[in-house]
Amino acid sequence: MKTSARRKRGTSIVETAAGLFIIIPIVLFLFDVAACVLAQTANDSMCKSAARAAAETDDAGKAQAAAQSAIDNFPAAGYIKSKRLFKPVAYDPNSSVTVVTEIICQFPVPIPFGGPAQMNFVTDMTEPVVGKL
Question: What is the pLDDT of residue 2?
Answer without folding.
Answer: 56
